[in-house]
Amino acid sequence: MSVHSFVAQFLKENGYLETLRTFEAEYGKVIPLELPHDETLEGILNDRLKYLAIDAQNEPDFEEILSKDLKTIKDTHLKPWLAPYPKTRQDLGPVSELVVDCAILSRNGANFALLATSGKSLIVVNLETGKEIARVNSVIGNVVIRRIIVAENLVFLCGMNGKVTIGKLSENFENLEVLSETQIHQRLVTDMKVITFRGKLHLISIGWDFLVKVHELDGNHQLTPVGVPYKLANQGSCFDAVVYHDKLYVLVCKKEITLMDVLCLDKQELVLDCRVALNDAEFSASGFTPMSIKIHHQPDSVPLIAVGTSHEPHMRVIILLMQNVGQNDKLMILRNQILCNLSTLSPQDKYSDAQIQWRFDGSGVWIIGDDGVIRGLDLVNKSVVTLHGHEGRVKCVSFFEDKMVSCGTDRNVIEWT
């Protein structure tokens, strides 16, 4: 008995004889109408639809399994997506080389995009005119820049060789005055961040050597190690840092494990304060890899944490509150911290490099897509806004105020305002 017999029997029972004749003509032979049992096509489909309806009812919405306390926290701390939002595009490119990373430099009331390219160049674009105004070739020598960060009036450039160069761009942007060079990791640097702590700039980094390091910038623009590096049990996948209750916290996620390490700089030493479970399954530590983590912190509030996951075919975003830290107990695992776990509709596969970022006011999360689409996720209403501008993957995005500059593998550079 074939599917064709079920279709033919349905057509005959409902009087679609002309359609049945056409169906048989295209099939090439007469289709037997006898069914081996009492089930018809219509009955099978109706039964399946009823089963799916029951299955959907048995699967609780994430909101339904939140405790009363977490629901109250969610209603208090999460904001709906606010309008207006950046959606007007201004094309700044294309550029001749692939942009690996980008940052925004503000000078004399104007904003400039610094584009680090695969050709080892640093391109400067005036965002007001949308024009390239300078290009510094081989800015850190014969090395490709992996990360670029602007802090105060300094430019931090991290190369693929694990070395960080700190410098200042000249008034015409055509030269970089190198102030210091420091080998912060012996191997590739996975990521780094610059943060102000107790009036001084601190550089936090994780590398392929499984180490989390903190360096302090002194008055001579030299990076000095702070304490002993923290050794991770697994390869680090992403991290972020925040100053909370006058302590520097570093939140580190690792590959193939969903327990997030909460490190604290205590007495000039980076120590494990506690761990936070990112998996909804109460006692499971695996299942996905946290690929991107971003912290949103406003004064006099508890920091919010957004984590982008390795889920396929679409990335998910997990939101939790950074509460109950300060345990100083390396065996402590904080559970039941998740406020929401949402699909972003952003496609990805095992080769993807997940990227997320909070909106400047915390009213949602930006998702940087492999399909060239930038999505804005409303954490309250679970809706998504989309910005279409790139053909192919978005390589990097730099955010400033409620604006952003995106760079794609199509070598287009776009400012969104």
Commentary on this structure:
The protein has 417 residues and is mainly beta. Helix content is 12%, strand content 46%. The strands form seven sheets. Strands 10, 11, 12, 13 and 14 form a five-stranded antiparallel beta sheet that branches. The chain has a five-stranded mixed beta sheet with strand order 15-16-17-18-22, with no helix packed on it. A hairpin with a 2-residue loop joins strand 16 and strand 17. The longest helix is centred in the N-terminal third of the chain and has 18 residues. The protein is globular, with a radius of gyration of 27 Å.
Total helical segments: 4
Q: How much is the radius of gyration in Å?
A: 27 Å
Distance between the termini: 61 Å
Portion in strands:
over 45%
Helix and strand composition category: mainly beta
Helix share bin: 10-25%
Low-confidence stretches: 55-59
> How many extended strands?
30
Characterize the main sheet.
Answer: 5 strands, antiparallel
Shape field: globular
Q: For the residues shown, what is the average pLDDT?
A: 89
Write the layout of secondary structure elements.
Layout: H1 3-13, H2 17-27, H3 41-58, H4 68-77, E1 89-91, E2 99-107, E3 110-117, E4 122-126, E5 131-136, E6 145-151, E7 154-159, E8 163-169, E9 176-183, E10 189-197, E11 200-207, E12 211-217, E13 223-225, E14 230-231, E15 236-244, E16 247-254, E17 257-266, E18 269-277, E19 290-296, E20 304-309, E21 314-321, E22 333-334, E23 338-347, E24 355-358, E25 365-368, E26 373-377, E27 384-388, E28 394-400, E29 403-408, E30 413-416
Parallel strand pairs: 18-22
Antiparallel strand pairs: 1-30, 2-3, 3-4, 4-5, 6-7, 7-8, 8-9, 10-11, 11-12, 12-13, 12-14, 15-16, 16-17, 17-18, 19-20, 20-21, 21-23, 24-25, 25-26, 26-27, 28-29, 29-30
